Design the sequence.
């Protein structure tokens, strides 16, 4: 499998390129609209054509590029079937793998950050979205988030994967790129080290996080598979504007 990890710096979002060397078809996991030109350039440089986009959940901190990439390339839009988005072409369900060429993705329903959140396992890698971050996890205080559900998603699904499985999250805010199931089980300060459900609930309840600054635009835009609002305040226009530089991770 051809693999690249790319980063969009405004929201610190990782986008993943998964390419089939036999067919030349590719998947983009969690593409961001302001980095789509960069993503297409990377695909072209690798000799790949975009077959589909795949989001882990309805994002609150950026606009997905799924719709714009479909308009540009004819790619299909895949997303968790749980969310029942009318703009999707493929609804991903647990137990029904998504296949593109030789790439087979197993969807894992991992609610807690959002109720429709999915992680995707591909061989020795798992793309954990916001359910499991490096030394952390996504917040659980909006979009039907639930700390108890997230604890079970991580401890009963993700932490039961082989220890050597590589963890690729949707975000990192400290310049880290990859972890492993063994590492997160051992040292994740919220969920690792044998944390109990009660301990995790106390940790999440004490975070006192500010209201997400882009959520009121991102969620409705992403329910349309990536619609940038026309009325963005000046301070938020960077979330939809094409970026002059969008570095590769």
Sequence:
């Amino acid at each position: 499998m051809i693999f690249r990890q790319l980063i969009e710096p405004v929201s610190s979002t990782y986008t993943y390129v998964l390419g089939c060397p036999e067919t030349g078809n590719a998947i983009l996991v969690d593409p961001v609209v302001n980095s789509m030109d960069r993503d297409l350039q990377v695909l072209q440089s690798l000799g790949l054509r975009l077959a589909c986009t795949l989001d882990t959940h309805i994002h609150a901190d950026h606009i997905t590029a799924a719709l714009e990439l479909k308009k540009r390339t004819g790619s299909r839009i895949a997303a968790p079937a749980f969310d029942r988005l009318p703009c999707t072409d493929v609804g991903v369900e647990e137990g029904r793998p998504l296949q593109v060429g030789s790439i087979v993705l197993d969807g894992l329903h991992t609610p807690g950050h959002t109720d429709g959140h999915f992680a995707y396992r591909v061989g020795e890698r798992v793309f954990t979205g916001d359910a499991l971050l490096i030394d952390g996890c996504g917040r659980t205080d909006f979009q039907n988030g639930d700390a108890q559900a997230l604890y079970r998603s991580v401890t009963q699904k993700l932490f039961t994967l082989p220890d050597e499985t590589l963890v690729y999250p949707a975000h990192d805010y400290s310049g880290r790129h990859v972890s492993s199931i063994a590492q997160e089980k051992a040292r994740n300060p919220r969920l690792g080290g044998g944390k109990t459900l009660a301990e995790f609930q106390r940790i999440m309840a004490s975070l006192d996080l500010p209201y997400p600054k882009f959520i009121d635009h991102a969620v409705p835009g992403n329910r349309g598979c990536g619609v940038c609002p026309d009325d963005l305040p000046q301070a938020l226009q960077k979330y939809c504007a094409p970026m002059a530089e969008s570095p590769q991770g």
